[in-house]
Amino acid sequence: MFAQQDSIPGRKKVGVVLSGGGAKGMAHIGVLKVLEEAGIPVDVITGTSMGSIIGGLYAIGYNANSLDSVVRKQDWSYVITDKEDLRNQSLSDRSKQYKYVISTGISFSKKNKSGDGGIIKGKNLAELFGQLCTGYTDSLDFTKDLKIPFACVATNIIDNSEVDFHSGRLPQAMRASMAIPAAFAPVRLGDKVLVDGGLKNNYPADIAKEMGADIIIGVTVQGDPKKADDIKGTIGILSQIVDVNCKNKLEENLAMTDLHLQINTTGYGTASFSSVAIDTLVRRGEEEARRHWGELMALKQRIGIDDSFTPVRHHPLRPKVMTERQHIKSFIFENMTPQDERFLRQKFHLNKADSIDAGLQQQLTTSMRVDLFYKTAECRLLPDDDGVHVALTAGNRRSIQANVGLRFDTEEYAAVLLGLDVPLKSAVPVNTEVTVRLGKRIMARGELTVHPRSFTRPSLSYTFRRNDIDFYVGGDRGYSLLYNQFQAEAVPINNDFRNFNFQIGFRWDYMHYRNKLESEKSTNVTLNNGNYLSYRARLNYNSEDNWYFPTRGARFKAEYAYLTDNLVKLEGNAGLSDISASWRKSFTFGKRFTLQPMAYGRLLLGKTVPFIFANTVGGDWFSHYVEQQMPFAGIGNVEFVADQFVAVQLQGQLRIATNNYVLLRLAGAQQAEKLKELFDHKTLYGIQAAYYYKTMFGPLGATFGYSNRTKEPYFYLNLGYEF
To answer: What's the pTM value of the predicted model, to 2 decimals?
Structure first.
C-alpha cells in the first residue's frame, strides 16, 4: 500500500480514477497491481460503483494483492443476495433458501409505505463492507482520515443530482455508489434517495482534479455500444439504461486524463462474479496496464520521481481484523429494546466475553436478524487504544415475509409452494409460519416456534395433507390412493447448533382414506380410518456446501419413532419401532469431479405395519411424495419394498462450465420381511444418468434410469427446487 509522498519538492500528485461496471470492475485490481510494481504513487483515488468499492478499500490500507485475495474468497452468490449466512442458520431455516424462488416483505404499516425499492435490499453487501472497513465505519473525513484521500459518487433520484462523498460513513458511501436502480435498494440519507453514481458521473476524473491531482491515471471497463439485437429481457433493458447514462461527463473527464486504460471485458457482464470471471477480469486488467508500461515509466518523469523512488507500504494484508481476536472494551446496543439486549447478552454470554473475532461478529448479526426479526442488523467494531467497542445496531423490525416456490416435473406437472413467516413482537421471540402447497398433492401447515435464550427452539405444528399417489409393486401400478392426513406435532426439545439439529417430540396422525383403486396384480388391503400416536427422536447433521450439488461436507440423518394407536400398543400388539438413517459424504477430485458414497435404510420392527407407513423407494429425494420414501437409482415412481430395507449408492458428479452438472448413480439394496433374512434374497440394483443446469429457479434437468425391480427404463424431467 502506498502513502502520500510530500517529502520530494515539486513532486506532482497522482490521482487514480476507477469507473463503475459491476463485476467487470474486478479488472481495477489488476491495474493496481501493475501500478504498484511500476512504483507509481497514489495520492488521490476516486471511483464510482464497483470502482468506489475497490478505491475505498485501497484508500484505507488494502494493497492490490490483498484486494485480489478478498474478492476471490467471497461467496458472491451469497453476497449479492439477501440470503442469511447458511453457516449460522438452523437446518430448517437453511432448507427454505432451497425451496423458494421469491421472498419479499409485506408491511401494513403506514410508516413503511415507501418500501425499499429494489429486488435486493443489499444487507449482505452492507455487512461485508462493514467487516472490510473495520476501524473506518464511523463518520470520517475521507480526505484527512484515510491513508489515501478518497471520494466516490452516487445519484440522488429525488432531483437527479450528483452526490459526491468526501465524508461520512465509508461503508454506507460505497453501498450508495453501487446501488444499481431496480436491482439494489437505494440508500436513504436524510432527504436524499441515493442510487448508482454511474447515472451522473461514472468516471469521476473531475473530482480527482478538484482534490488536487496533477496527473490522472484512469480505468474504464465499459464495452462497445450495444445494438438493438443485443438488448433482451428486463435485465438487458436496465443494463442499457445505466450504460447510456454512464456517458454523462465521460468525454470531458477523459480529456483531463493523462493515461486512460480501457479494459477489454468482452464476454462478461455486471453480474459475472464467478471465480473464472474474476480470475479473467483481474488478469485482463493487469495485461492492459502492462501494455502501457512505457507510458507509465514516462509518467514517472512528469511526476518528478525516478527508479530510486519507492512508495511507502503500510499494510500488505490489512484484513487481519477479520481473522484475529480482539479485546472487547464495551458493548453498545443501538435501536433495540431492553428485552432484545438482554436476549443477546444471555444467549452469547456477552457479560463474560472478553474478545471477539469475525465468527462471533457474524453470529451476533445473524441472531439479530433470525432470532429478533430485525430486517437489517449490523455489528461494528470501533477501535480504541487497546481494544474495540462492539456496536450492535438494529434496523427496522422484519415485516411479514412472503415466500413463493415453483416447480414442474413429469410426474405431478406444476406445483406451487406459498409461505408466510410472521414474527411476533414479544418478550421471548416467537415466529409463526404458514405454508401451503398447491398441485396434485395439497398441503397446508402452520407452525409456531419459540426462540428462547438457549439454543433450543420448542415448536408446535399442525399439518393437513391431501395426497393422490400411485403406489407401484414390481414396476406395475398396484394402488391409486386418495387420502387425507391430519397431523399435529409438539417438539419441546429442538436444539440447533449450526450444522447440527436434535429433536425429541410427540406426534398425532389421523388417516382418512377417501378412495383406493387396486390393480389385478395387487394384494387386497383393507384400509380403515384411524389415529396414530408416536414418540419421536431425530438427529440431523449437514455440513454440505450446497443443497443439491455439494462438493464438500457430509450429511447424516437418523430417526427413531415408536408408533402406537393408544400411547402404548398398536392394534393390540406392541408398538411399531421405526428406525431410519442415511449418511452421505462428498470427496472432490480436482476442481470439477465429486464422488459421493451414501448408505441408508429403514427397519420396521413389530407385528403390525400399517399400510400407509410401509417402506417405499423411488425418485431422487427422501420424503418427496410420502414421508417414509427413500430414493433409489433407476426407480422413478413410489415403489413398495419389504419392511427391512438397506441400500448403498455411489454418485459421480461432474461440473461442466459454471452451472452444468452431469450425474451418474449406481445403487444396490437388500430387503426382507424379517431382519435375519435380509441377505437371503437377491440384490436390488439400479443405475441412472442425469444432466442438470443450475438456474435461479432451481435445478433444470432430465434423468434416465433402469432397475432390475421395474425392469424397464424411465425418464424424468424436473424444473425447480424440490418440495
So the answer is: 0.70
